[in-house]
């Protein structure tokens, strides 16, 4: 059996090696992380403490907020610590752990968005049967499937990445340990790993995305048939927030993983990755709350703000 080279540490090169830019990036990402964390926590608490929001849509939304909170916490804190300490070292074990949870939360996020699209399909196209179709058991199943699938996929990737050899080059041109980056860094045969990325990673993005498109086709048709403009707006506003999140998430993911290799540069990939790992999870709670009077009312009630609580009654 061929001996494997076990590196003790990797070096995360990050978004920039310039001290002035690193200071700016530290402040920027710290601000975004704190805002996103607070916003997602408030969304979870508002839904948890308001019995009026004990519906499937808000159940899925609270799970999405939890996933977004975990997703950003997988990569951003380590990047902030590195900028703060002036170090870019990450241990081998820590790198694989970060990769594992990045896959878990990213995969769960992708599959959950398709479950939310199915929920909106039933609500808009089958409103009279919605409560009988979208049962608590089905809701729990639609949340459990992403979690179980994500852990299985992450486990397979982690096991096979751990079998790779890493030689003298231990510099990762990224701000976290990404599967594709580690595969490129390895000096051993990575054919199996590349096939796993294709056959496990591809369906995780494409199948949920196709399901979302299929779900929204009859939704758009149903909304178009609503006679009044006010009725159309009210019907579509429940789906507009979800569509905005889907566009942000899948647009950048597909740009990173499904574009021709010749168009890729490490800098472009990092910028696109920042969009779906940091920016989108930070914006999600704002996208959902801005169009939703019920959620704004629950947030106002939680924070003791009468202005938002009154708007809920409008």
Characterise this structure:
This protein is an all-alpha fold and about 325 residues long. Helices cover about 75% and strands about 5% of the residues. Strands 2-1-3 form a three-stranded mixed sheet. Helix 1 (about 20-50) runs antiparallel to helix 2 and helix 2 (about 55-85) packs antiparallel against helix 3 (about 90-125). The radius of gyration is 21 Å and the shape is globular.
Please give the share of residues in helix.
over 70%
- The whole-angstrom Rg is 21 Å
Helix vs. strand class:
mainly alpha
Overall number of strands: 3
Question: What would the principal axes of the Cα set say about the shape?
Answer: globular
Fold blueprint:
Layout: E1 9-12, H1 19-49, H2 56-85, E2 89-91, H3 92-125, H4 130-133, H5 136-161, E3 171-172, H6 179-185, H7 191-224, H8 229-257, H9 266-290, H10 293-303, H11 306-311
Parallel strand pairs: 1-3
Antiparallel strand pairs: 1-2
Defining key terms:
75% helix, 3 strands, single chain, globular, 314 residues
Quick structural gist:
This protein has 314 residues and is an all-alpha fold.
